[in-house]
Amino acid sequence: MTTYTSDELASMVEQLPAKARASGLLFIEEAEFNREPDVVFSGETVTLDTALAIAVQAPFVSLQVEKFDGEQLADELKDEDGHIPEELASVISAARLHEGEVEEVTIHWTAQGMIFEWSAFADWHPGFWETLAHAKAMVDLQEHQEVHDEWAMQLAQMKELADRLAGSQEFRFAKPRSRRAIAETMAVKIAGDVTGSGDFSRILREAGALVDRNVLEHEQRLRPQIRELAAELLARPEWRTASNQAKMRDAVTKFLAKKAEGYRLSAAFVEEVMQAALNYR
C-alpha cells in the first residue's frame, strides 16, 4: 500500500497538467460532476501514472485539491453560540503544523459513459480525521447527557431511533448521503416531526459515525483475506453474470456486505476486491 506526504501530493498537483498533456489529455481544474463516480481508484493501490494511462481516452481530466484549513474547520464545528468545544479545538490545534498543506488530491474523468475518480490522501489525513471524529463523538455524547429532564420523553424517543438505526440493515447498507432519509422515515414513525431538532441531528451523526467505525473495523479484518475473497467472488453467479463494471461493483458491494454484517464497505475497498477478482491468477 502506497502512502504520500503532503509534499508529495503537492508535487503531484504541480506535475499533473504536464503529465496530462504528455498523455494527450486536456486538463481542466475543478470541473463539477452532477453524480457520484462509477469507478473509484485509491492512490494507495493505483499510481497517478497508472490512473492517467487508464484515462487516456477521456476528453479531459479534472483536478480538485483540498488543503488543510484549521480555521475554517473550527468555524464549521462551532455551536449556535459561536463556541467550539475544547476537545475539538485541541485536536485541530495539534494539527496546525499541517496548515495549508495538501491533504487530498482527487482527479475525475469521463469515459464510456462513466465517471472515474482517483484520489490520494496525505499520510497524516486518516489519523487526524479519526481522532477528530472520536473527539466529536465524545462531545456529542457529553451534550446528550447534559440535556435537561424536560426533554426526557424526546430523549427516550431518540434512543429508540438510535437503536433502530443501529440494528437497521437498510441504514448499514445505505450510502452516506442516503442515511438521513432513512433516519427521517424512522423518526416520523417513532416521534412525529422531530427531524429538525438538535437531538435528531446528533443521533444521526452518532449513528453515521458508528457505521463508519464499524466499516473501518470490517475492512481491517477482511484486508488480509482479499485474495480469498476474490476467489470466492469469482464463483458467485451475480459476478459471473455482471455485464459491465457498474454491475460488477454492485455485485462486489453486496458480496462484501454479507461478509461484514450488512455494512456497505467503502468504494475504495470494493474497488480493491474487484481488481483482485479481475486479476486473479
Notes on the protein architecture:
With 281 residues, the protein is of the alpha/beta class. It is built from 13 helices and 5 strands. The protein has a 5-stranded mixed β-sheet with strand order 1-3-4-5-2. Helix 5 (125-145) packs antiparallel against helix 9 (198-222), helix 6 packs across helix 8 (179-191) and helix 6 (152-167) runs parallel beside helix 9. The chain starts with 5 loop residues before the first helix and ends with a helix. 25% of the residues are buried.
By DSSP, the count of extended strands is 5
Helix and strand content put the structural class at alpha/beta
Number of helices: 13
SSE pattern: HEEHEHHEEHHHHHHHHH
The percentage of residues in β strands lies in 5-15%
* Order of strands in the sheet with most strands: 1-3-4-5-2
The rough form would be described as: globular
Give unreliable regions as ranges.
none
Q: Helicity level, as a percent range?
A: 55-70%
End-to-end span in angstroms? Answer: 20 Å
- Rg, Å, rounded: 21 Å
Average of per-residue pLDDT values: 86
Q: Mind summarizing the main beta sheet?
A: 5 strands, mixed
